[in-house]
Backbone:
């Protein structure tokens, strides 16, 4: 594959991986928790490096998943103790993220790991960081990592589809029939953590938030069916990556930034043209009713 094709494939994998997971978060009204996790996993990455002295993908995934689950646990504990949910997210988010920033300062210049790298990412460098098997170049590491995380997320959603759907729309009934609500909650937090750290090198933590939240919010405006929303959110993530890539090439701007901007453009199109919630649709409907 060509240099540009690898970048495009990486962006599409980020879009579909974060889009599918983010759609569930939007439905569960946990979008800001995704923002918190996408930053606090920096602590997990740094911690994994201190333990293994390596930037390999598997330790990073494990470290990010652990810290992501801790973030959700701490927010839940503060919330249950009487702290408002938004304040709880703010306290945990800033504390764990700041700790990760402090720990990064001990790494120094010995490895390619810094706050700017973790937050902003650089998808243009992805094709150069390749994975080799028996001396054969298998393509960028990020593609394999994102592909593996996408497979895990899809497998978990298929395996626990009924439980995720019930706990999302009717948690009281789910608890009544014996579905482990907290297990599903932390399972989803683990999926978000894996998706976030797998996307770090491609778009960075800040832009992962756009891919986690905006495609799901856009799909929410376009459909009322759960499975359709998941699929549509993944498609919007992919479409955002494609539109963003070609816009970045055309105008010679940041690729990851253009992809994130594309999510916003698609959201505003849906906001105006959505069959049920769109501004223009509502105006036309009201006009027809008056006539």
Residues:
């Amino acid at each position: 594959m060509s240099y540009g094709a690898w970048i495009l494939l990486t962006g599409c994998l980020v879009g579909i991986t974060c889009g599918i997971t983010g759609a569930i978060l939007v439905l569960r009204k946990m979008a800001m928790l995704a923002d918190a996790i996408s930053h606090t996993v920096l602590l997990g990455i740094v911690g994994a490096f201190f333990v293994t002295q390596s930037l390999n993908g598997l330790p990073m995934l494990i470290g990010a998943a652990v810290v992501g689950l801790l973030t959700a646990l701490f927010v839940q504990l503060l919330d249950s103790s009487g702290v408002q949910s938004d304040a709880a997210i703010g306290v945990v988010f800033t504390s764990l993220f700041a700790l990760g920033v402090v720990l990064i300062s001990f790494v120094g210049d010995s490895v390619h790991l810094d706050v700017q790298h973790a937050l902003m990412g650089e998808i243009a460098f992805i094709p150069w960081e390749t994975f080799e098997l028996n001396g054969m170049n298998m393509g960028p590491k990020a593609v394999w990592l994102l592909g593996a995380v996408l497979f895990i997320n899809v497998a978990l959603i298929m395996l626990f589809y009924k439980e995720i759907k019930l706990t999302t729309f009717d948690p009281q009934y789910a608890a009544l029939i014996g579905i482990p609500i907290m297990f599903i909650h932390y399972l989803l937090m683990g999926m978000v953590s894996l998706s976030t750290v797998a996307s770090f090198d491609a778009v960075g933590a800040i832009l992962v938030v756009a891919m986690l939240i905006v495609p799901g919010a856009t799909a929410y405006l376009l459909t009322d069916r759960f499975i359709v929303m998941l699929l549509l959110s993944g498609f919007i993530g992919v479409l955002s990556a494609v539109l963003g890539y070609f816009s970045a090439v055309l105008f010679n701007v940041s690729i990851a930034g253009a992809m994130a901007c594309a999510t916003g453009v698609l959201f505003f199109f849906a906001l105006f043209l959505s069959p049920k919630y769109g501004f223009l649709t509502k105006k036309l409907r009201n006009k027809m009713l008056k006539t």
About this structure: The mean pLDDT is 86. The two ends are 57 Å apart (CA to CA). The CA atoms of residues 18 and 211 lie 6 Å apart.
